[in-house]
Design brief:
The structure is a homodimer. In chain A, about 35% of the residues are buried. In chain A, helix 8 crosses helix 9. With about 190 residues, chain A is of the alpha+beta class. Chain A contains nine helices and eight strands. A four-stranded antiparallel sheet of chain A has the order 1-8-3-6. A four-stranded antiparallel sheet of chain A has the order 2-7-4-5. In chain A, strand 4 and strand 5 form a beta hairpin. The longest helix of chain A has 25 residues. At the A-B interface, helix 3 and helix 5 of A face helix 3 and helix 5 of B. Chain A binds a DNA duplex (30 and 30 nucleotides) through helix 9.
DNA sequence: TTGATTTTTTGATTTTCGTCAAAAGATTTT
DNA sequence: AAAATCTTTTGACGAAAATCAAAAAATCAA
């Protein structure tokens, strides 16, 4: 499923708009470990992951690498704070697998907003999806112990356990890798 | 500052649009403890807090009341998942002080989208502000101990410590009230 | 396929924080 | 102003999870 088909499944698009979006976007195959976005820069592109996997992370005060979220197939990923607000971001985005992605620059997206106001609906939709994902994660972390956090992963994102290094999942859940490993052992 | 002036400071609005928004909105004085939104319902209104304070919360599986965020002066609050997606929400919103708020219904906002596409920009702006606030909080909780979480409050929202019951702040930070009280004592 | 590197597991120990209980302090109500 | 209710603090204790260290397992590269 390409990204226009994906969007179309939520917000029906006119062929005009569908063509506009496709023509402005770029399809790429990129290797594992490729950085979609580096920290300190203003993020220029929004990506749709057709195949593959990305993670969104930052370094905390202790220099520890902390994963904030994952970008699975059929999802959009960008440094959201940076991309929409046009300011540098502390976050990085890296691919965890060889991936196929569509990308679109901010400038092109902005032009499409002007030409076709309904594209604004699309961006609102994407933002709301991100927001909901974050609410979910927030609720999973805020007042839950390590075992409950692990359950969040096994229930909502079981595939990640197969595909992602344990350390990334541990920092995503806000627990240490050792604790996560032990919890996983007894069950 | 009313909400149109507030928006105008980010996204310059034509007088036409400013008047549209003002005419569709309603200014109200509401008392402490008033529920702006009840759980289980589809949230019909988005609120702008001109004066006062609200909190956004839910009940977890153990029935514990957990504060997810606060709505301070000059910010928008609604059950975001519910309002924009038109589905029931597990969250509640209550006023913590006598407040002055502007409200606008989803139906009216939607009509304004149609009439004035630039209003879509406004709603994108609001969403991004919420998103950033959530990212911030996320980073503050994800891998930090109780003392670091407390520092997040003292640095970013010191006024809340004066205005809000400790229990609400504790659940917002994902720690117990006793722990928060002890941390506060020694410093 | 062998060695090098990275990732995961396991163990011992320490620290942090939650839980339960009760007292002290505020605030609201009558 | 006294009583009732709600909020915050304090103490003792135990459970959960972090830290440090090292071994085992898996993956990658030559």
């Amino acid at each position: 499923m390409n990204f226009v088909q994906y969007i179309n499944s939520f917000v029906p698009l006119s062929t005009e708009v569908a063509e506009e979006l496709l023509s402005k976007s770029q399809k790429q195959h990129l290797p594992k470990h490729y950085l979609l976005h580096k920290d300190g820069e203003i993020c220029q592109k929004i990506y749709f992951i057709e195949k593959g996997l990305a993670r969104w992370y930052y370094y905390n005060e202790d220099g520890k690498d902390i994963t904030d979220s994952f970008g699975l197939e059929n999802s959009f990923i960008t440094a959201f704070d940076s991309f929409f607000q046009r300011k540098p971001s502390r976050y990085l985005i890296e691919l965890l697998e060889d991936s196929t992605v569509y990308s679109m620059t901010y400038a092109d997206l902005d032009q499409s907003f002007e030409k076709f106001p309904e594209v604004q609906r699309v961006s609102r939709l994407i933002l709301i999806q991100i927001l909901e994902q974050m609410l979910d994660k927030n609720a999973a972390l805020q007042f839950n112990n390590a075992r409950q956090r692990y359950r969040f992963i096994t229930e909502k994102h079981p595939d990640l356990l197969q595909r992602v290094a344990l350390g990334h999942i541990a920092s995503f859940l806000g627990i240490t890798q050792e604790t996560l490993s032990r919890i996983r052992a007894k069950k």
